[in-house]
């Protein structure tokens, strides 16, 4: 269980990151790559990346965990790759050692190369620099335009929730099972972790590569970086029509699903209409439901889904909706 104990000043200083950070997304991509859960959206992406990942990039796998953890020096939240690389290589040696010991205590093996990194061996750090650049080139660089579009769509959506429904709704909607107890934010987490903030605030940063529990990273300036899964992960973001802001916001598959659900559909019906598997259709409805855009109701073995007023409002204001069978 994660518990973030906030002061009033922290809650008054909640902000949303304005730009994605390539090295943050890279670390999360490598963490998601190592997961073994049968995620219907990320499983094909994992298989493709695992096949194409160049050998020089593979040392990064020794440093990041599928639990969503990595050494803090490896993913500085800089919006610029070169600036981020400079920050990695300027990390003080004591901090490097502390972070590597922390990762090995979680689930990373203490390999000879990791030992050499901790000892600040020059050749080991050259291998690290090559690995990070190769990983970025293979996983992030080509996808960067989609990452940018998805990030800005997500932060616009989160800001709308914050403006219309308030801070409580904006934060509890970041991930399932997130709740408030007084001024303490609680969420599911792989281990017990209590963080006490000091009034410097919280930064919300969505990730298009992460699809699990909230992630936290205390920053040098005292703020807390709170990373959460974006509504539309990268594998569901494709090139979208420029005249369709709804597709730009939630991705083409989910936009199509939302438009279909102005009329009631079962999960099986929706899978057939979207030409996806029932598991993938169920994942779409789960995310739409958690965002408050649809509701679901079980009837025997079938589960029926349809739009909420918020979902209809998004359709009405999100661009020209495709009409089908007399509906949107």
Low-pLDDT stretches: 319-328
Anisotropy-based shape: globular
| Tally of helical runs | 14
> Helix fraction?
40-55%
How big a fraction of the residues is strand?
5-15%
How many domains is the backbone divided into?
Answer: 3
**Mean pLDDT, all residues:** 88
Radius of gyration from the alpha-carbon trace, in angstroms: 21 Å
Description:
The chain has helices at 8-12, 22-33, 42-52, 81-89, 93-106, 112-118, 122-141, 144-165, 167-172, 245-250, 252-260, 267-274, 278-290, 309-317; strands at 2-5, 14-16, 179-181, 184-187, 193-196, 202-207, 215-218, 224-229, 265-266, 294-299, 302-307. It is globular and about 60 Å long. Strand 10 (294-299) and strand 11 form a beta hairpin. It folds into three domains: 2-18 and 145-229, no CATH class; 22-143, no CATH class; 238-317, Arc Repressor Mutant, subunit A. The strands form three sheets. A four-stranded mixed sheet has the order 3-4-1-5. Strands 2-6-8-7 form a four-stranded mixed sheet. It has a three-stranded antiparallel sheet with strand order 9-11-10. With 328 residues, it is α/β, with parallel strands linked by helices. Helix 2 (22-33) packs across helix 7 and helix 12 (267-274) crosses helix 13.
